[in-house]
Amino acid sequence: MRIWVDADACPVVIKEILYRAAQRVACELVLVANRLLSAPASAFIRCQKVPAGFDVADRYIEDAVAAGDLVITADIPLAAGVVARGALALNPRGELYTPENMAEHLSRRNLVEELRGLGLAGGGPPPLGVADRRVFASRLDAVLAKALRAP
Question: pLDDT digit string (tens) for 136-148?
Answer without folding.
Answer: 999 999 999 998 8
